[in-house]
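Researcher: Sequence recovery benchmark, item below. Answer with residues only.
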């Protein structure tokens, strides 16, 4: 059944935001940055805007952890977009309506006037899964904003039978985030250059996602007492010296995020 009545849509937004806070609030978050200066908490202080990208299936991770008004997420104009908008606005995000294929020109004009960061799910709203669309690359080139494409994973989650295998973390699971260095797309790039950078960002995000999934599996193995901590081989975004997660944080409702410079 399609939900179209404004009051029902508003109710979905209230219930959805409450559920995300309650469920994802039990999760422990772990982060690994190739460049700590791209940490959203750090850029929030410095006022340096970025485009933050994460795949559609792990949307609940940033929806809970990075839900600040300075983070503006692009939500498609498709029929279900209003319900998603109601949820993320109640979580604290700024919202821009449109997509790279529908309402894109209007959305781009709005993004040009945004003060803060932009957030994209480059494989949404309908896939293919873990595919980066060229629209985000074009936006980065047009606006001159670096792209930070993060890989995220949950140690234990339910998976929806959907095109993206949407992940819902199980209570008290671990969440991992591997963040490569920012990619800077040349200003006013031509079609061939845009495709070159699209492939670069897509490879980087998929590699980071695989590393985040491996890390989450290791944490789950440790939790179950199956073995002591033994990190996997270092990847492009995982220095060999990084033997264990250095930052773990479980925020509660209304709690401030930690200073990333604190160890």
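Model:
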């Amino acid at each position: 059944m399609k939900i179209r009545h404004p009051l029902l849509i508003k109710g979905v937004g209230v219930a959805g935001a409450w559920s995300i806070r309650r469920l994802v609030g039990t999760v422990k978050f772990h982060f690994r940055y190739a460049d700590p200066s791209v940490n959203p908490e750090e850029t929030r202080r410095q006022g340096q805007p970025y485009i933050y990208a994460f795949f559609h299936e792990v949307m609940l991770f940033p929806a809970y952890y990075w839900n600040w008004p300075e983070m503006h997420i692009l939500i498609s104009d498709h029929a279900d977009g209003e319900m998603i908008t109601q949820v993320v606005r109640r979580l604290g995000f700024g919202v821009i309506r449109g997509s790279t294929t529908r309402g894109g020109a209007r959305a781009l004009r709005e993004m040009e006037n945004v003060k803060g960061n932009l957030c994209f799910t480059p494989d949404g709203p309908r896939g293919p899964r873990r595919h980066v669309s060229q629209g985000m690359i074009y936006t980065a080139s047009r606006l001159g904003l670096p792209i930070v494409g993060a890989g995220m994973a949950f140690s234990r989650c339910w998976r929806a039978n959907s095109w993206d295998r949407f992940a819902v973390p199980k209570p008290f699971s671990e969440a991992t985030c591997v963040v490569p260095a920012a990619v800077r797309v040349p200003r006013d790039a031509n079609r061939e250059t845009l495709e070159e950078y699209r492939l670069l960002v897509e490879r980087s995000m998929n590699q980071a996602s695989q590393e985040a999934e491996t890390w989450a599996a290791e944490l789950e193995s440790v939790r179950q007492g199956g073995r002591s901590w033994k990190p996997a081989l270092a990847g492009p975004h995982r220095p060999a010296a990084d033997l264990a997660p250095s930052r773990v944080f479980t925020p509660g409702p209304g709690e401030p995020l930690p200073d990333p410079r604190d160890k």
